[in-house]
Amino acid sequence: MSEPVVYLNGHYVALSEAHISVLDRGFIFGDGIYEVIPAYGGHPFRLKHHLQRLANNLSEIRINNPLTLEQWQTAIATVIERNQLDDQSVYLQITRGVAPRDHRFPEQSQPTVVIMTSELKTVSEEKVKQGVKAITLPDNRWLNCHIKSISLLPNVLLRQQAQDQDADEAILVRNGHATEGAASNIFIVQQQCIITPPKSSMLLPGVTRDLVVQIARNKNICLKEQPISESELLQADEIWLTSSTKEVLPVTRLNDKIVGRGRPGPLWQEMYRSYQDYKQHLRSGHPLPES
Ligand code: PDD
Question: What pTM value is reported for the model?
Fold first, then answer.
């Protein structure tokens, strides 16, 4: 198989030729942001939403957006096309660029832009059908979790702690409330109603989360964006995780206790079907209208 092609600062290069300076502020400080965008049959999933979040994040960390919307679209489409994979995970990272090490912003630097893609690794069918295990852990991250920062050390440590306990995800609890997963958003079902925490600086505004909210609203399913206390989480009838790679994933064990009836619940089944339907339309090149 030929080598993957990567977009690096305006050039399309083979992965082995894509080099970045050790002085890049992404490497030195974790000074940058990223996106993960699934592409089904070559069609990126909710691209405008991902690029809007990217633009918001750049402005939050005070980096001028280095590309226009059209340039982003073209570069992403080119990387997808050049890599000839069926379902792909597009990874996009922007850092403040290369400069002598100094915490203060450099007076002049060009942002470093990388776009690469790999085969989309989704959760196995067996796990989706059975549901996964999660554990709760204290949310010890910073207070700007709405920024998709590449400084992911807390998330990495939390996720590994989950893995060490044979769990697929850590659900994070701050001040008595569940915020999100180490790399996913959370939903619970309580008395036939879906609940997800409202957007705030305590969680990432997930693109998948927004689609799930939209689907529920379109189908007139009860959905509330309101805080979830730790005890509500522990007593939930259903718990779901959402992300670009996990899609909508049921949690059937939490801290070694069974969630609901121990299998994916009826509202999850309904949401999962709608989500797969949305994906199928996208894959066939006839996406459902966005809102
Ligand atoms: N992470 N919350 C956190 C902390 C995340 O890292 C992610 C996704 C999400 C879900 O966002 P979205 O639905 O837009 O993928 C929520 C990606 C997939 C990652 O870091 O690999």
Answer: 0.97
Ligand 1 binding pocket includes 196 (Cβ within 6 Å)? no
Q: Is 208 in the pocket of ligand 1 (CB under 6 A)?
A: yes
* Residue 137 backbone zone (phi > 0: left; psi -120 to 50: alpha; other: beta): beta
Task: Report the separation in Å between the CA atom of 60 and the middle of ligand 1, taken as the mean of its atom positions.
Answer: 18
Domains of the chain with bracketed CATH: 5-119 (3.30.470.10), 125-283 (3.20.10.10)
Cα end-to-end distance, the chain, whole Å: 39
* Ligand 1 close to Cβ of residue 243 (< 6 A): yes
Average pLDDT of adjacent 10-residue blocks, the chain of 291 residues: 92 98 98 98 97 98 98 98 94 98 95 97 95 98 98 98 98 98 98 98 98 97 98 98 98 97 98 97 86 55
Q: Are the beta carbons of 203 and 197 closer than 8 angstroms?
A: yes
